[in-house]
Structure formats: structure tokens, C-alpha cells
Write a structure and sequence with these properties.
Layout lengths: L3 E6 L3 H11 L5 E7 L2 H11 L3 E4 L8 H11 L4 E6 L4 H8 L5 E4 L3 H13 L4 E2 L5 H6 L8 E7 L2 H17 L3 E6 L1 H13 L4 H6 L3 E5 H6 L2 E2 L2 E2 L1 H15 L10 E5 L1 H7 L3 H14 L5 E8 L5 H13 L3 E4 L1
């Protein structure tokens, strides 16, 4: 019988020991490595190309969901099973959207780990008995059409033209608009929308127009100068899921005009800006929403910034420059 090579990823040694003990009940299953953080998991997956990876979500350095995304690119034949304490249906959906075939709760691992591994090795999906399939079925598909556009603008007039058009279209369709920007841009946009005849005060009163400060918003999910996935998911995912309830349509969505990425880039936090754009794409596998990122062209200088410019463009569904 062929040996199945398994990588175990969890930051608790006792838990890894328990998993190893359970797996030893199948002599053909071999634990080839154990690692304790997400970044190390990516490196080890690329090097060893394991048949199966048992992966926690709350990992140091790189969370399990982001690690899974990278692993899928570097070792596409490795099957992934998440083993986590997190029972949020949104987290389960985000985890499965990476291409993982299994998700089991740690509390159920004693009875479900071996059946989960057997099922996933056959190429079939396995979910813990506590996960309600009907809720997963109601969640947006990973391939749901979405707009994640970027506008590079040369002056504030271009910013206002495009941002007001984006917001007006969303509100006109019965959706919800959220602006995450500097105070001056939010004030200017508010005045522009009112001048164009939009009843912004009524939209604010009914929760259909949300105005947030970019610096304050960033502070809610940044850790050590980098966006943290779990905090980001809670803050931005909460904005999208809760905000949509104020829409006029049966299945309203939220349209976000944001300056979080641009703020990070302007502050020299380039890697954080790129990571944030990737998080937005990752969030779109869980929720349906539209977003317009607005970057000042004044941030671009020299060859290095041109590379950053191209990298950021690659994370978007459409790019506009004016």
C-alpha cells in the first residue's frame, strides 16, 4: 500500500502530538514534518510536496487561510484539511474557498480526523458534523462576479468625479455605499453628492451611506504594520455583511470606495498595501461586494514604484488612470 505523506501545522505541541498519535492508527500514513507557523508551513509544503496537509487557522506569522492560498500555488497537488477551533460559518466558507477539501472542529477531531483524512484522500469533501451544509449553500460562490477596481488619479477633481459616480450608481441600484477615506476627501465627496441632488442625509439616516475615517479603520485590523486577516475579516467582513442589510433590494450588496491601500503605500508600507488588496480578493470569496480603490499618482516615483504599481494593478479586476 502506498505511503501517504502528511504535514501537520499547528502552534501547539500537545495538539500535534495528539494528531500524530491518531494518524499512527493507519501505518500507511506517515507524518513527514510538523511546523508551528503559517510561513514555515508554506516553505515546507513547497519543499516536501506532501500528499496531505492538516492546517490550523490561528497561526503565528501567517494565518492558515492565507497559508493555504500560497500552498495551493506552490504545491497544487497537496490536499488540505483545516483543523480549527473556529466554528464561524464565515471562516469555514473562507477556508473552503482556498480549495481545501476538509474542515473539522478540534473538539471533534478524536472521532472525525481519521474519517476526514480518508474522505479527502479520495478527493471528496469532509465537513465536521457540527457544520450546517445549508448555511454553506447560502453563502456566495467563490467565483461570484465582483468589481475590485482601482483608480489612479492625478488630482482631487478626478478623485471626486470617479468616487461620486461609483457611489451614485450603488445608491441608485438600491445598494449601500461606504466611503473609507481621509476627512477632507469625505467632506468634499459629501458636498459633491449633495450638489448633484443626492439626499445624502437620508441615506446616512437609513444606513445606506457609511462614512469612515481611513486612519481609524486601518487601526482596527493592523498588527505590527501589517493587516491581520482575522481582524480584517471581522471588521471589513462585518461592514459588508451587516451593511448590506440596509439596502433596498432583496439581495443588496455594499459598494466601498476606499483609501486604505493608498494610505499604506503613501506611508511607505508597500507590502502591507499589497497584502490588503489580496485580503480584499480573499474576502470576495465569502461575500459579494464592489470596491473602488483610489490611489494618488503622486505616490509613484521611479522604477521601484513602477513595479509596485504593476503589482497592485494585478490584484484588481479593472485599472483606470487619469
Amino acid at each position: 500500500m502506498a505511503t501517504i505523506r502528511i504535514l501537520v501545522v499547528d502552534d501547539h505541541r500537545e495538539w500535534r502530538n495528539l494528531v500524530r498519535m491518531l494518524l499512527q492508527m493507519r501505518p500507511e500514513w506517515q507524518v513527514i514534518s510538523e511546523v508551528s507557523d503559517g510561513l514555515e508551513a508554506v516553505l515546507m509544503a513547497e519543499e516536501l510536496k506532501p500528499d496531505l496537509i492538516l492546517l490550523d487557522i490561528g497561526l503565528p506569522k501567517l494565518n492558515g487561510i492565507e497559508a493555504a492560498q500560497r500552498i495551493r500555488q506552490l504545491s497544487p497537488n497537496s490536499k488540505i484539511v483545516f483543523v480549527s477551533m473556529d466554528d464561524s460559518i464565515d471562516i469555514v466558507q473562507a477556508a473552503l474557498a482556498t480549495g481545501a477539501l476538509g474542515y473539522i472542529y478540534k473538539a471533534d477531531a478524536g472521532s472525525e480526523l481519521l474519517p476526514a483524512v480518508e474522505t479527502v484522500l479520495r478527493g471528496e469533501r469532509f465537513l465536521s458534523s457540527g457544520i450546517e451544509d445549508n448555511k454553506l449553500a447560502d453563502a456566495p460562490e467563490a467565483n461570484a462576479p465582483r468589481r475590485h477596481e482601482v483608480q489612479f488619479y492625478s488630482d482631487d477633481a478626478v478623485f471626486l468625479d470617479n468616487a461620486s459616480r461609483f457611489i451614485t450608481a450603488a445608491l441608485g441600484a438600491g445598494d449601500v455605499a461606504a466611503v473609507v477615506a481621509t476627512e477632507s476627501h469625505r467632506d468634499s465627496l459629501f458636498q459633491r453628492l449633495k450638489a448633484e441632488g443626492l439626499d445624502v442625509d437620508a441615506a446616512i439616516k437609513h444606513g445606506r451611506y457609511i462614512s469612515l475615517d481611513v486612519a481609524e479603520t486601518l487601526s482596527t485590523f493592523m498588527v505590527n504594520d501589517m493587516p491581520d486577516w482575522e481582524r480584517f475579516f471581522k471588521v471589513v467582513g462585518g461592514l459588508v455583511s451587516e451593511g448590506a442589510k440596509a439596502g433596498k433590494r432583496e439581495h443588496s450588496r455594499v459598494a466601498i470606495c476606499g483609501e486604505c491601500g493608498p494610505r499604506l503605500w503613501a506611508g511607505g508600507k508597500v507590502d502591507a498595501a499589497i497584502r490588503l488588496e489580496q485580503f480584499l480578493n480573499q474576502l470576495a470569496t465569502v461575500y459579494e461586494f464592489d470596491i473602488l480603490c483610489v490611489y494618488a499618482l503622486s505616490s509613484c516615483h521611479g522604477e521601484e514604484d513602477e513595479y509596485i504599481f504593476q503589482t497592485i494593478c494585478a490584484e484588481h479586476s479593472a485599472v483606470f488612470r487619469a
